[in-house]
Amino acid sequence: SISQSSLFLNKKQHSSSKDQFQEELVIRPLHSGDIYASFQFRTLWDTDFLQEGQKKVSHYRLFPKSLGQVLSKFSVQELHISFTQGFWRTMQWGQPFIPSPPGAELWVWFHDTVSDVDGNWKELTNVLSGIFCASLNFIDMTNTVQPSASFKPLGLGNATDHRFLRYATLPREIVCTENLTPWKKLLPCGSKAGLAVLMKSEKLFHSSFHSQAVHIRPICQDEQCTSKAWELRQTLNVVFDHYTSGQGKKEWSLFKMFSRTLTEACPLASSSKVYVDITDNPELSPATPLLSQAVVLGDRRTYSVYDLTRAETFGQLRSFNLLLRWKGDNMLRPLLHAERYVAGFGLQTGEIHTVIYNNHPYRAFPVLLMDSVPWYLQLYIHTLTVTSKSRDNKPSYIHYQPAKDRHRPHLLEMLIQLPPHSMTEVTVQFERALLKWTEYTPDPNHGFYVGSSVVSALVPSMVAMSTNFTQDQPLFSSFVPVKEESSYFVRVYTEPLLVNLPTPDFSMPYNVICLTCTVVAVGYGSFYNLLTRTFQVDEPSPPLAKRLANFIRRIRGVPLLA
């Protein structure tokens, strides 16, 4: 019958779809007493958008159709986009699982068959602006660069031709609910079931740090790479202020953080887990016998694992709420840290300082520094200096692309060797340009933002990293592939800069208009009055005594005086 045939077709589509969905939440108490919560959702689909064409890829089950069409239309090989509110404090919170700079960041690898990369890039930014309700349409060639070494593909393909790479940031982009809503709609279950029910807007944005991202890349499904798939990874990282109890212990719960509890896993998810970092032996309730160890960012951590696909996880109340209390403040100092600031006085010249710290006690390692500076800050590249421990530190690799006024920004990439337990300072002088009056923002006295510097490095690991590829490893430890046991990849973003430019007095046109209009009104009004007024000669009125006499005569009936 019809119902049996439709059921058969539904089962056939599900069996041939070759896609799967995983979700996980990692909760980690921070050294500062804050709480770090990291959501990760991964959708795998065994298909090829670039070769099969959009007409053949017509059935979308778990993978969002809007993103699939974008990959196919613009021949995107790899896409990474993030929206961040706040700045990640590395010295207080340690390293995040997936870093991101303040504002919006977008970098894309296009397929090598694309002939007009700039045209595809411009159209892609406009489409993504509509999908995520963001201001990505303000990305143009004046804030787009082509890094030569800093951003390599994280998926399949060891691309070396950076002509097919585009990178841009919008450091002033404000992240709000209108960006979170379309991000949640990309999930197979939306915000109706699974871990996404915890994403309450007023709680997420009432935090010290909030970052949401989308990463799309082709990956291998096994260690021999016999089969390939497209991976869509949606991440959301948030840092909440700490909660302190009366006994001096820090405590939190899912309900305190999100004002909600978990009731079920996403029905479409093959895996749904909650990881809680218990390396510092906190008090955890309810307890779980499932434990997991993972080497994350060079540190071996122990996690309590809660499997949401099991009914016993929710108990009789069909509600899952975690409670954690801890008192320890032990934290390993991050081995790599960077910061940046502007020095100088006046509105003509200045100096950009980038400070990179190597906190390893006895190991030196190289870092790759990338700076993208707007064209209206005219760099004096001959003033570039790199010093470590009060000595000159000559970079082994320098790539510099000068800016063109109103066409492209500066791009500076350097490979610097950091001595052990040292501070390396990079300085360069610049001169501020005078913009046209139409190029200023509505609030020019607030200043102009300069995107974060990017520091990429393979940091020596204190613990042997695992290079074995397994599908069962946690999502938070498998984003960046590990190729060596002795090191791990770290990317650090500095603070964005706020630079004041020479600003004209925009109130002067208003003053001139008011003064001119006043003079014209007074002059023209007087002249018009003289031209249009008619003059008449009025006879003088009789004196008061005569008028009084005539009044008396009128009463007596006597003729009036002439």
TrEMBL record:
InterPro entries: PIG-T. Transmembrane segments: none annotated. GO terms for biological process: attachment of GPI anchor to protein. GO terms for cellular component: GPI-anchor transamidase complex. This is GPI transamidase component PIG-T-like. It comes from Sinocyclocheilus rhinocerous. The gene is LOC107705717.
